[in-house]
């Protein structure tokens, strides 16, 4: 998978940076070597801002959604919202529809969610939902579509913030900052992938996209924490 390959590389990058830039300090005191089992001075572990990691994770989730899904309101008379999977294309190169919110029509006399068998391999279940839920899903879809369109700007702002953050960091702490940035973004993207999968099980389409963003937020926090732990382990 493309995503797994990208973040395996990020994981390797973290290990390389850690191994070469954060060598474990030697056990010395007043230039005299002593047993490393001696009791060291108390040390308080420092954590990056959870709020910052959440924002970075949300940006990763938005980028994940924009890269994988397209959203369109309306269409045929019965269509309320359409979600397209950009990773699955037709013979003409167009994204295939993945999930669709429909009003009652033909032999289906209730509001429902359609899911494309060509993508899932499962017969369209025509999941019944209420009219209020369908309308709420349509409105939510419009918001998610706006987020999708803004995702490139959001991610660019996130990257710019990271660059400025690194530039303003003390030179000795720059490697640690890079480790944390990579870990946070990797965690956000992996979290978005998992969140989208869970969201699909709950509400195909809209739930997929909401899950991507929520999963990205949690993944960003988890990735940031992992970066903090790596930096702590290899601190001087």
Describe this protein with a few key phrases:
236 residues, alpha+beta, 2 domains, five-stranded antiparallel β-sheet, two-stranded antiparallel ribbon, elongated, disordered N terminus
Summarize the structure.
By secondary structure, this protein is α+β, with helices and mostly antiparallel strands.
Explain what this protein looks like in three dimensions.
This protein has 236 residues and is an alpha+beta fold. The protein has 2 domains: 2-12 and 49-69 and 142-233, no CATH class; 70-133, no CATH class. It has 6 helices and 7 strands; from the N terminus they run αββαββββαβααα. The protein has helices spanning 2-21, 50-68, 117-120, 131-167, 174-202, 206-233, and strands spanning 28-29, 32-33, 69-73, 79-89, 95-102, 112-115, 127-128. The protein has a 5-stranded antiparallel beta sheet. A two-stranded antiparallel ribbon has the order 1-2. Helix 1 (2-21) packs antiparallel against helix 5 and helix 5 (174-202) runs antiparallel to helix 6. It is elongated. Residues 1-39 have low confidence and may be disordered.
Please give the radius of gyration in angstroms: 23 Å
Give a count of the beta strands, DSSP E runs of length 2 or more. Answer: 7
**Overall pLDDT score:** 85
Beta-strand share of residues: 5-15%
Q: Helix and strand string, N-terminal first?
A: HEEHEEEEHEHHH
Number of helices: 6
> pLDDT below 50 for ≥5 consecutive residues: which ranges?
1-39
Largest sheet: 5 strands, antiparallel
Distance between the termini: 37 Å
């Amino acid at each position: 998978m493309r995503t797994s390959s990208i973040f395996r590389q990020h994981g390797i990058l973290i290990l390389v940076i850690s191994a070469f830039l954060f060598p474990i300090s030697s056990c010395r005191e007043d230039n005299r070597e002593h047993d490393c089992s001696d009791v060291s001075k108390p040390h308080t572990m420092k954590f990056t801002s959870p709020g910052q990691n959440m924002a970075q994770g949300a940006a990763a989730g938005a980028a994940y959604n924009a890269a994988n899904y397209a959203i369109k309101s309306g269409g045929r008379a019965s269509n309320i919202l359409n979600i397209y999977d950009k990773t699955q294309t037709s013979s003409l190169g167009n994204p295939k529809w993945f999930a669709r919110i429909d009003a009652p029509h033909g032999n289906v006399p209730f509001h429902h969610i359609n899911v494309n068998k060509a993508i899932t391999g499962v017969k369209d279940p025509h999941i019944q939902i209420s009219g209020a839920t369908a309308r709420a899903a349509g409105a939510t879809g419009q918001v998610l579509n706006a987020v999708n369109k803004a995702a490139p700007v959001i991610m660019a702002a996130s990257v710019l913030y990271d660059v400025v953050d690194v530039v303003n960091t003390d030179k000795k702490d720059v490697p640690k900052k890079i480790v944390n940035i990579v870990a946070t973004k990797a965690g956000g993207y992996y979290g978005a992938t998992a969140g989208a999968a869970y969201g699909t099980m709950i509400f195909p389409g809209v739930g997929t996209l909401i899950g991507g963003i929520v999963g990205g937020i949690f993944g960003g926090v988890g990735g940031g924490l992992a970066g903090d732990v790596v930096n702590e382990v290899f601190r001087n």
